[in-house]
Design a protein that fits this description.
K(+) binds at residues 63, 126, 162. By secondary structure, this protein is an alpha/beta fold. It is 41% helix and 16% strand. Helix 4 (94-105) links the parallel strand 3 (80-85) and strand 4.
Length: 496
C-alpha cells in the first residue's frame, strides 16, 4: 500500500496550490482534470479489478469534470459506463463542460439522476461535490447521496466524499460513505478526524505531478504523526545508566474507590521506559496498589504537607486519574500546580481547571470532547464540529500543549502546525484509556522529551498499542490494561 504524505492542508490551502500550479507553472486546469480522471481509473481498477459496469454520479463543479474524464477513460477501457448528472448543467465551468462534451463525443450518454438507477452496476463513483462544500446538503443532492449510500455497491469518491467538510471532518446533513477516496494535490485535514475517517474509507493520494516548488512557502495546517521518527528522539540506554537517569513520575490521584486509574497511569509510565514511578493516593489504597504492582511506590497522602516531599523527588507529575473533585482532590490539585515540574493534566484535574481557570506553559492538558466543552464553555457538539479550532482555543486559553482526544486526536503546541494521530480504533472507547495515555506521556517526558514531543509521541504510541491489541484479540472487550505489553514493544522500536 502506498504511503501517504505527512502534510495536511485546509481547503483554502489546496485551492492556493491549484492556483499556483495553473498561473505560475502554466499547467492548465484541464490538464489537472485529465490527470485526476486517469489516476482515479487506475485506483478503481486496483481496488476492484473485476469491474465491468460503472456508474458515475457528477455534480456541476470541477469534481464533476473529474468524473466525466474518468467515465470517458473507463469507456475506452471497455467498461460499460453510465453517467448521471445532478444540478443545472448550465452552471458547468468551461473545463467541466469540455470534459462533458468529450464524453458525449465518445458515445456515453449523460442521464438525469434516478435513485433506482444504481441497481445495475459494480462500482459507484461519487463526483458530486469537491472541497468547496461548506453548507448543509439538501434537495436532489441529498437524495442522490442517500441513494448512493443505500445502493449496496462499493463506492469510490473523487477527492473527498461529497458532503464531508474538508477542514473539519464534519457532515452537515448527509455525506457519501465511501470505501475508497482518491484525493489530489494535498491531503485535506478533515479527512483524518471526527467523522472523516468513517466516510473516507481507505484514502489514496496523487499529487497530479504538481511541481514541488508549488508547495514552497505554504506551511501545512497539520502533520500526521509518525511514531518511529518520534521514538528515535528518546535517548539510547547507556550500559552504565541507572533508574534515576530515566526520570521519576509522580501520579497524584485515586480518591476513595478509584485507585485503578492511578495504577494504570503509573504502569503505563513504566512501560514506555521511565525509571521510577510514585503514586500519591488516599491512604486506604496505598497498600493495595503495592500488592498488585509492587514496582510502584505508593504513598498514602491526606494533606498538602504529605505531598510536598513527593513533589520534590519527582521530575514529572500526572494530576487527575481518579482524583475526584472534592476537598482532597482540590487540595492535591492546588499543591501540584505550585510545583516547578512539568505536568500532565487529565480527568478530574481538567474539571477542576474548568472551575478555576489558569494558564501555565509547563503542562500538557489532555481533554476528551466532554472535558473540552467544560474548559471552553461550549457544547460537545460545538467542540466536535471544529476540532481544530477547539484545540487551538484550548492551547491559547490554558497555555502549554493541548491534546483533544477522540477519532483523529489533535495536538496543539503553540504556533507549530498541529499534530494529528491517525491510529486508534473504536474498541478504545472504554474506561481507563485516558489514564494509560496520561501515564505514557509522562513517562516520555521523564526521559527528556519536550512537552510537544511527548504529547505527539504519547498519543500515537497509545493509539498504536490499542490497534495492535485489537488486531490480535478484537475491538470488542478491549481493556485499557491490554495496552501495556504493546506500549513496551512500541517504545523499543528504535532498538529493533
Amino acid at each position: 500500500m502506498a504511503i501517504l504524505p505527512l502534510a495536511l492542508y485546509t481547503a483554502d490551502q489546496v485551492r492556493e496550490l491549484d492556483r499556483r500550479t495553473i498561473e505560475e507553472f502554466k499547467i492548465s486546469s484541464a490538464t489537472l482534470m485529465e490527470r485526476a480522471g486517469a489516476v482515479t481509473l487506475e485506483k478503481l481498477r486496483k481496488h476492484w479489478p473485476q469491474t465491468q459496469r460503472l456508474a458515475v454520479v457528477c455534480g456541476v463543479g470541477n469534481n464533476g469534470g473529474d468524473g466525466y474524464v474518468l467515465a470517458r477513460l473507463a469507456r475506452k477501457a471497455e467498461m460499460y459506463v453510465t453517467v448521471y448528472q445532478i444540478g443545472n448543467g448550465d452552471q458547468l465551468s468551461a473545463d467541466s463542460r469540455a470534459a462533458q462534451q468529450s464524453l458525449l463525443n465518445n458515445g456515453v450518454a449523460i442521464l438525469p439522476f434516478q435513485p433506482q438507477a444504481l441497481q445495475s452496476t459494480d462500482v459507484v463513483v461519487d463526483a458530486i461535490f469537491g472541497t468547496g462544500i461548506n453548507r448543509e446538503v439538501t434537495g436532489p443532492w441529498a437524495e442522490a447521496i442517500q441513494a448512493i449510500n443505500a445502493s449496496g455497491h462499493p463506492v469510490l469518491s473523487i477527492d473527498i466524499p461529497s458532503g464531508l467538510h474538508a477542514d473539519t471532518g464534519n457532515v452537515s446533513g448527509v455525506a457519501v460513505k465511501a470505501q475508497v477516496t482518491t484525493t489530489f494535490v494535498g491531503l485535506k485535514q478533515g479527512m483524518f478526524t471526527y467523522l472523516g475517517p468513517d466516510y473516507c474509507g481507505q484514502i489514496t493520494f496523487d499529487s497530479l505531478q504538481i511541481p514541488s516548488e508549488a508547495y514552497e512557502n505554504i506551511t501545512p495546517s497539520a502533520y500526521r504523526i509518525i511514531l518511529k521518527e518520534g521514538i528515535a528522539k528518546l535517548p539510547l540506554r547507556a550500559r552504565a545508566g541507572h533508574k534515576g537517569d530515566y526520570g521519576h513520575v509522580l501520579i497524584i490521584g485515586g480518591e476513595q474507590g478509584m485507585p485503578g486509574a492511578a495504577r494504570m497511569a503509573g504502569e503505563a509510565a513504566y512501560r514506555v521506559g521511565t525509571g521510577l514511578v510514585s503514586i500519591a493516593t488516599r491512604g486506604i489504597h496505598a497498600s493495595l496498589l503495592n500488592m498488585v504492582r509492587p514496582e510502584l511506590m505508593c504513598y498514602g497522602v491526606e494533606n498538602a504537607e504529605d505531598l510536598k516531599p513527593l513533589l520534590e523527588r519527582a521530575t514529572v507529575i500526572v494530576i487527575g486519574p481518579g482524583l475526584g473533585q472534592g476537598y482532597w482532590g482540590q487540595m492535591m490539585f492546588n499543591e501540584a500546580l505550585n510545583s516547578p515540574h512539568p505536568l500532565v493534566v487529565d480527568a478530574d484535574a481538567l474539571n477542576l481547571l474548568a472551575k478555576y481557570p489558569q494558564q501555565h506553559e509547563r503542562w500538557i492538558i489532555t481533554p476528551h470532547p466532554g472535558e473540552a466543552s467544560r474548559l471552553l464553555d461550549l457544547s460537545i457538539n460545538e467542540i466536535q464540529l471544529n476540532r481544530f479550532a477547539a484545540v487551538y482555543n484550548l492551547q491559547r486559553r490554558y497555555g502549554g500543549v493541548a491534546i483533544l482526544k477522540g477519532n483523529g486526536t489533535v495536538v496543539c503546541s503553540g504556533d507549530q502546525p498541529l499534530g494529528l494521530c491517525t491510529a486508534g480504533n473504536p474498541g478504545m472507547a472504554s474506561g481507563g484509556m485516558g489514564d494509560v495515555l496520561s501515564g505514557a506521556i509522562a513517562g516520555l517526558l521523564a526521559q527528556g522529551l519536550t512537552l510537544s514531543e511527548a504529547a505527539n509521541i504519547g498519543v500515537t504510541i497509545h493509539a498504536m498499542a490499542g490497534d495492535r491489541a485489537a488486531r490480535e484479540h478484537g475491538e470488542r472487550g478491549l481493556l485499557a490494561g491490554d495496552l501495556m505489553p504493546y506500549l513496551r514493544r512500541l517504545a523499543n522500536l528504535q532498538m529493533n
